[in-house]
Specification:
The chain has 267 residues and is mostly beta strands. Helices cover 6% and strands 45% of the residues. It is built from one helix and 24 strands. The strands form six sheets. It has a four-stranded antiparallel sheet with strand order 1-24-23-22, with no helix packed on it. Strands 2-3-4-5 form a four-stranded antiparallel sheet, with no helix packed on it. Strands 6-7-8-9 form a four-stranded antiparallel sheet, with no helix packed on it.
Length: 267
């Protein structure tokens, strides 16, 4: 084969592999990042090992921070609505609500308003709050005041591993509950169980649109939400990345490498 053709093919191969690799992000910080979240406006929220949440604008400019050392470790942050950020503290059964400037605008203690062991919480499409009561296996939607909006129907057809976090998110008319090694449980907007979805190697659901994107042990997998019986549409290498999240505007997955550096993978 002609030497020039070989060089050209090598060039194409190199740049193809490079384009498909994880790329170092422009935002890098000098503290240890525990997890990263990205809201629908491409703002980044970095949670440090000291449980401080720092918010950055899409261009990388630091915006503001929130810190609370009295409620234990942060279990989950929901940034689905950048004007109503939820910070869940499972140890104290507390949910802190932050506004766009990372100032506390509300707080709920689930024990004091009559709930049992709440394992997770997430914002609903109508800016209320979904919570999962583990003991009753029930989804409930409440207002920020604690008033019940939807009192779901208990469903005991699935197990919960008490040692692993549970992730909850609403997409359109369904609410998805995922936990590592378990089937995804799907409920409707009235808190009634609809079905379960068995995703091989599931760690947690990252993002749902027309497809469901989830993380397994070593890759990100995409399936069309309405036809999970076909082969996956795509798989992306994790390359040691953790705390995977998705930027809807830029269509990028973000994650942290073993050295707590921020990387992204563009679809």
């Amino acid at each position: 084969m002609n030497k020039n053709i070989l060089l050209f093919l090598s060039f194409l191969c190199f740049h193809s592999l490079k384009a498909q690799s994880w790329i170092s992000d422009s935002i890098q910080v000098d503290y240890n990042v525990r997890s990263i979240y990205i809201d629908p406006l491409s703002n980044k929220y970095l949670v440090s090992e000291e449980m401080q949440i720092q918010k950055y604008k899409p261009d990388g400019t630091f915006w503001n921070r929130y810190e609370n050392n009295r409620l234990g470790s942060i279990g989950w942050v929901d940034v689905s609505n950048p004007f109503m950020v939820l910070v869940f503290y499972p140890q104290y059964q507390s949910l802190v609500i932050l506004d766009n400037n990372m100032s506390e605008s509300g707080r709920l203690n689930f024990s004091s308003i009559g709930f049992g062991n709440v394992r997770t919480a997430a914002i609903s499409d109508d800016n209320n709050i979904w919570i999962l009561d583990e003991g009753n296996r029930k989804l409930t939607k409440i207002k920020t005041s604690g008033e019940i909006v939807v009192d779901g129907i208990p469903y005991f057809g699935f197990d919960i591993d008490g040692s692993k976090p549970i992730h909850l998110l609403q997409k359109s008319n369904f609410v998805y509950i995922s936990q590592a090694g378990k089937k995804v449980q799907v409920f409707d907007i009235f808190g009634k169980w609809v079905k379960s979805i068995d995703l091989e190697g599931l760690t947690f659901v990252i993002y749902i649109d027309k497809s469901i994107f989830y993380k397994d042990d070593n890759k990100i997998v995409e399936y069309p939400i309405d036809n999970l019986n076909i082969e996956p549409l795509k798989t992306l290498p994790l390359s040691g990345m953790r705390s995977i999240t998705y930027d809807v505007i830029r269509q990028r997955f973000y994650g942290l490498d073993p050295d707590n550096k921020i990387y992204y993978y563009k679809l």
